[in-house]
Amino acid sequence: MKVGIIGGGVGGLGAAYYLAERGHQVALYERAPFLGGLASTFDVGGGRLERFYHHLFLSDTTIIGLLNELGLGDRLIWEDSKTAFYYKGKIYPFSTPMDLLRFKPVSLIDRVRLGLVTVYLQRVKNWRKFENTTAASFMRKWAGKRNYEVIWEPLLKGKFTTYHDQIAMPWLWTKFATRVSSRDKTFKEKLGYIRGSWGVLIDTLEERIKQRGGEIHTSTSVNRILTEGGRVTGLEVQSQEGQPAQRPFDLVIATIPSFALPRLLELPQEYAAKLHGVDYEGAIAVIWVLRQSLSPIYWLNIADPDIPFLLVLEQTNLVPSSEYGGKHIVYTANYVTRYDPRWSKSPEEIVQEYIPHMKKINPDFDESWIETYYVHKEPAAQPIVTVNYSEKMPSTRTPVKGLWLAAMSQVYPEDRGTNYSLKLAIEVARQAEEEMGRAE
User: Fold this and answer.
1) Same domain for 11 and 141?
2) 137 and 49 share a domain?
């Protein structure tokens, strides 16, 4: 079977690898000059670093299993989580139940109440019971007004901006389920990383696909998905150097944002409406290469509306700074709407805007600490999941025979994440193969 894969992120690579391993002729097309999507890497200080921050939870069994299958299991490193919460000029550790009990911005009664809600959500198995409830209304009701105002409202606003009060509770439920399953026997949360960067996984997948006779085409756009009689027949592709070319395929799997699929072919109105009905937010990440450490915290949530970023993540509090020539790597990250003024700002303008706020995290921070910086922008980073989202979510099996979609917007109730994108893409590849086999 000839298979065309649109998109060279980890999901697209996973689908291509699965099908190539099973003897199919695979060709993958990625418009960027590199593979990996949000997990793609670039060189920093002699090491490789992701354009957008990435780590693993113990619950990320799909990627962990794939790493072991590829002989990369020994590359996994696991460290105790160092998580904290910035509120009104102070950093509060937020990694353990005892940290919660010491969180003085809310009363002892509120801390206990939040702890009970946490335990309850960690034990719930049926997420569908929350489908018609927003995360905001649930937390206001059960965690209480003060906990909502101090903790959950700033985080929801930081993550979802103008959509914060529309987000379905199953999205937040998955956070509790994921975090509890990433704790070891001592109840400490573990976070993982691939020694050498996620580029090790991406490179190995590319190598294995090619070894099985598969093709990988970067800097190559898909102009159209070709169909005839309601069935996919191939792709029209165009590299940066050449003219459009038509390639025949029996099966096509698109691993692109939902809204991008109708640009490539005409689809039935009802299905196209579902694709267009999924809103996305973008992400802007500043990577600071520093001569000194900013803080001892790996993951610092920001609950301050005056600070123009949601998160401060110090990569070198999970991965040794020796991986990057002794430099300290810090991400400041935002989820933003398409109307955010930072889309049109230069990297220099964004960094200058952020510098005064870095001093709030560490008053000793000085501009002389900055060796260099990078700014990465992604317009489709976070699907917006509203109440009863499972009814709105487009099916992975499109109305066109032989055409499947594996988009980030379809990992629900899980949140966006490389593990779940990979899991979905492999499952779609498996289902598509089975269906094609039955049709023959």
Assistant:
1) no
2) no
Query: Residue 397: CA atoms inside 13 Å, Cβ hemisphere, count?
Result: 9
Whether 358 and 306 map to the same domain: the answer is yes
Domain check: are 314 and 271 in the same one?
no
- Of 231, 255, 242, 363, give the one whose Cα is nearest residue 8: 255
Answer for the pair 266, 274: CB distance below 8 angstroms, yes or no: no
Range of the domain at 402: 2-54+198-278+389-439
Which of 256, 261, 325, 337 has the alpha carbon at shortest distance from 290? 325
Tokens (6 digits) for 208: 């294995």
**In angstroms, rounded to a whole number, what is the distance separating the alpha carbons of residues 19 and 196?**
26
Query: What is the pTM (predicted TM-score) of this model?
Result: 0.94
String of DSSP letters for 152-170: IHHHHHHHHGGGTTTBBHH
**Dist. CA 355–CA 344, nearest whole Å:** 19
Q: pLDDT tens, 85-141? A: 999 999 999 888 888 889 999 999 999 999 999 889 988 889 999 999 999 999 999
Residue 256 shares a structural domain with residue 332 = no
- Examine residue 80 and state whether it is found in any structural domain, yes or no: no
